[in-house]
Amino acid sequence: MGFESMLAFLLTPALAWIIALYFIKSKPRKRKLPSTAFWAMVMDKVKENALWQRYRGTIFLLLQLLAVAAGIMSLAKPFKTGGLFGDLIVVMDTSASMRSRDGSPTRFDSARSAALSLMDKLSGDVRVMVVELGARPRIALPFTSEVAKAKAALSAMKCTAASGCSSAEGLTFLSSLKTKDTKNVFLFGDGFDGQAAATTFPGARVKVRTFGTKNDNKAITSFKVAGSAQRATVTMRVTNYSKTIYKGVAELQGMAMASEQKSVELPPANAEKGPSEKMVVFKKLQFLKLPEVLRARIKSSAGDDLLPDDDEAWLLMRRERVRVAVITTRQPKVIMRLLGSLPHLEPIIMNPTEFLRRKDELKTFALVIADDYINDDLLKKPLICFHPLRSSGLSSGTAANNPRPYVGDTTHPVMRYLGFPGLQVKRTVVLDKTQGGVIILSCEHGPMITCLSKGEARQVICSFPINQSNLSFKVGFPVFLTNALRWILGEDLQLAVGYKAGTLVAAPKGKGPVKVSHSDPVSGAKISPSSKSVNATSGPMNVFENVGVYELARGDWKVPYPVSILNAGESDIAPRGPAEATFGKEQEGGGSGSKGGYWRYFALAFLVFIGLEWVLYCIKGV
What we know:
Blueprint: E1 2-3, H1 13-21, H2 39-48, H3 59-76, E2 78-79, E3 87-93, H4 107-119, E4 127-133, E5 137-144, H5 147-156, H6 167-175, E6 182-189, H7 194-200, E7 205-210, E8 218-227, E9 232-240, E10 246-254, E11 260-266, E12 276-285, E13 292-300, E14 312-317, E15 322-327, H8 333-340, E16 345-350, H9 352-357, E17 367-371, E18 383-386, E19 395-401, E20 406-407, E21 427-431, E22 438-443, E23 446-454, E24 457-462, H10 476-489, E25 496-497, E26 499-500, E27 505-507, E28 514-520, E29 525-526, E30 532-534, E31 539-541, E32 548-554, E33 557-564, H11 568-571, E34 580-584, H12 599-620
Parallel strand pairs: 3-4, 3-6, 6-7, 15-16, 15-17, 17-18, 18-24, 26-33
Antiparallel strand pairs: 1-2, 4-5, 7-34, 8-9, 9-12, 10-11, 10-13, 13-14, 14-25, 19-21, 20-22, 22-23, 23-24, 27-31, 28-29, 28-30, 28-32, 32-33
């Protein structure tokens, strides 16, 4: 039993005062009598009003004591320390590390069993909320007093291969959920910071249950392809988190390529230096048939590997090169040299007249780079434009000579590793501010380089032509152009692409559900027992729950998505913290507005005792 307000017990002396009233009488007053006939009556009264007299039993004393005791207990707001009262928030960690097989059978299974056991202790007055912290924090069940719904939400929860959200993101999300009646927060996972959570919920008890006992894990934490399809180099990083020596094989497989293997031996992890790792490199690979799905896999000959999901990684080698149209009246050798160094790009140079003849091919170009040329069709495409014409609407119509450039927004991706020191421009137009976008270079007359986002198309607009500045001679020009390409094309600029579990995928606009299948195309095995459909006309879909290759299809649209973990933080499965720890207040429940306190019952008893005493007083007439 606990009490919310101990100050109420300062009223306890009132019980002694009530008892004293039945033993202490008032002091008799001196009176003059005209006759001794009444003397006997006065003597009897004096004896009755003696300071101390033997107690004569009466039920009124008992009722008054019970009423005052009930009132004191009501003000103290007692609660049962063995139960849970107030609003309860249950937080479940569903990140990849919770799949480690040192639980029953996994850590997540053990955590869920503990959470379900907690639900059995709840009374009907407790409101409970279930929160899932995975790739993105979400409310699995809003506040409810129905324990059956809470159990159903926990039973339906899945632990995916997705990396968990950051600690800061999780705490920010949890802080938005607290109410004035939040008295208990239970966190079930393998790496929660209970002290930080207690700071987020001041006045509440925060209890952390940590699952897992070992860190015996080996993982692929990086998987990349460089070069070209005709001469590629594949690298994978193998990491050993275990305290034992790792001996195994790193294997590279594809749908059309022969398997290649290399032996790997890693020393045990060190408490000071951390895990041991090794880069495994496969050189001079030739991929004649594209697209190609690559699978990297490690196979251990000895020792435990508690998280098998990170033993594999997947990449997709693209079928076609990305076509880029370069429209100019001059020979921009510096641009063509840079584009030619990117093996997945296919730059095609043409003058404006030739472009108009090949206008029907515009939809086949992923990007257009235009120097001193623009038209209405290009304004709808991903575009890098130098010196837009006034008729395009991008220019304000104002021209300037020898402007003094200065850098604007330095946080934009196009400005990564970039500055414009010593930039000289002979002639420029001033860009129209009403177009919006992010201004990364300006002068005293107005914007000079802006980055626009028009729906799904991104554009970088430069106000001056290449031959009217020394930009192409600056060391930063290749950096500027590469950053712009990466910002506009994104993953289309890469030779091989892969996705992490939990990534949101945007479905193209269309009617009907998106069909999702999950398989291992290298071995031909279907990982999921059957395909499923996602009812999404467009927008993000969270369908990547496990590692492997997902295929999303709707009508003519069909795209494979290779999914891996590739996260050192998730592969490091060492449990962080004791098996059980409590932060904040020790009591469970109680407090103002608590749903489970007993104070209301004592208040009712107080009223009952007072009412009963009044009734007896009226009956006896004393």
